[in-house]
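Action item from last week, closing it out:
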Amino acid sequence: MQPDPAPILDRLSIGTPLIGLYDAPDPGAFAPLVEPGARQCVFASLKHWQQGKTLHLTREKHGCGAPFLLDADMRPREDMVRFLCDEEGLRASHELMGLWLDVVRHYRPRHDHLLIGPLRADQYDYLRTVTFYVNPDQLSALCTGATYYSKPADPPPVIAPFGSGCSQLLSLFEDLEAPQAIIGATDQAMRKHLEPWMLAFTVTRPMFELLCRWAGDRGSSLHTGFLEALIKARGGSLSA
């Protein structure tokens, strides 16, 4: 059963809908659907998500996210190296760019459909990650909450790995069954589709469940005077 994130959203004044990424067998359960254009950035669908629509990705219709989200090659490796190095300027040399491509993870779907859009409680079994679109104040609170149940020997609860915006939604997690969060929307190429204040905080399903537990614990950082002081300093709300 999907836990209720409303206490987090209310306390932190997060007004942007939470966005789920689903690996599911039946896209009809997520209607209304939108399809990506050729090589279209995943995040060009932000306005659709805010309207309650879901982006539908398949190996046949995938936009720009095919390599990392669907494990499907869009162009020869040499072309990809040249594009990322020479056009985007992401590494100092083709050799370094190639070394990164050698180790970057690609997600292999369980089903034929990836769906990105508003949370749907009745599809919780197929949920892989949840993304909060937040400002820096809200991000700071969520980062603190993500560490609330962690032990020193656990995998880092919050990471900020290099990668494309779409890879930060899914494939850069080493283990989707572990509670972990990625600070994302740090890819310059996709930020034109977001509001200037927006950062992404993408969490695995186990981390989403822990954050909802954190919100219900009256002794947690979500309910302390430190957060109250921050809210007061911002004029009574952390909204952008």
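Closing note: The two ends are 31 Å apart (CA to CA).
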